[in-house]
Amino acid sequence: MKRQTMYFRMITSSLIRRRSRMLVALLAVAIGATILSGLVTIYYDIPRQMGEEFRSYGANLIFVPGGGDSALNADEVKKATGFIPAEDIVGIAPYRYETVKINEQPFMAAGTDLNEVKKTSPYWFVSGQWPAGSGSVLIGQEVVERIRLSPGDTFTLSGTDIGGKSFSHDFTVSGIVQTGGTEEAFIFMPLSDLEGLMGNSGVLDVVECSISATQQVLNDIAGQVGENVDDVTPRLVKRVTQSEGTVLTKLQALVYLVTVVVLLLTMICVATTMMAVVAERRREIGLKKALGAANKSIIKEFLGEGLLLGGLGGLLGVALGFAFAQTVSINVFARSISFQPLLIPATLIVSVAITGLACLLPVRSATDVDPAIVLRGE
């Protein structure tokens, strides 16, 4: 029989003979590995989860006219949005504002891409339906209170185009917007409809961008746009980006703290269990030394038992940790979490390392056993 096989059989049989104590140590390592792998999985997935959650609060980057211009050029906006990674874009909604009249009362019309508005402003509450095409509009709650319109009603919009020519066009109310903010004072229509009324196109007042990215990435995008596009000024929506950064930092700090505490408790539990095992096996250790066993072989035996426990506990922890992270993610964010394959070797290495450190003191105690004293029964 090879020495490695004999060594493995020796440490496994030792663990089996003391399975009640070793089970406690195994559970401690497994729980520690579970918390470690689960929290690390959450830690790496938090930015994505938090980004998706904060996107419900609206855009986090806007483009406004720069260089003394009073309006944005659609070509310049296209150039600016080119600096945003396509995979990070949630939605980009352009807006153009013009003054129009209903029954000779002035109102502000906003031409936009309503499909993109659904993505950049998911917090809008719409009574009725979103416009399905040309000729349909959303009207704000304040507008409704002034002119008493309901979904399905038709009204006439009038005004003067950029050439000074009067226009009049019928529109149908598709839905009513309620946000609790300034949006309730606007009439929202497809950008193409407003451009048709005003007689020109390619002119914008502001562009709202909802981007799933960290504050640092947003700063980089804003910097690139500011340096390379003269007629566009990027501005971060600080109430969103700063809140997201603050919450993310605190959550990640909490993950660090809990992980460190759990690993320390795991180390203490394993060390206590191994000390009890050494105390039980004092006569066995003394007998081995009396028969000529060197301290090196005693150390290898106890470390082997500890490292095997660490490996088994780490494997359990990887599976249970992902289940733990998935449960937390679904209950907190209502979204599933992605598995990180690198967690398997990382969790195993940390579990084995923690168990090895926890065994150092018990192993030292085992090497200090005096065979003459122990075999006399003292």
From TrEMBL:
Protein name stated in the entry: Putative ABC transport system permease protein
Family per record: Belongs to the ABC-4 integral membrane protein family.
Membrane topology: Multi-pass membrane protein
GO cellular component: plasma membrane
InterPro entries linked: ABC3_permease_C, MacB_PCD, Macrolide_Exporter_MacB
Family annotation (PANTHER family): ABC TRANSPORTER PERMEASE YTRF (PTHR30572:SF4), MEMBRANE COMPONENT OF TRANSPORTER-RELATED (PTHR30572)
Bilayer-crossing regions: 253-279, 306-330, 342-363
Keywords: Cell membrane, Membrane, Transmembrane, Transmembrane helix
Molecular function GO terms recorded: transmembrane transporter activity
MacB-like periplasmic core domain location: 23-198
Domain ABC3 transporter permease C-terminal: 257-367
Localization annotation: Cell membrane
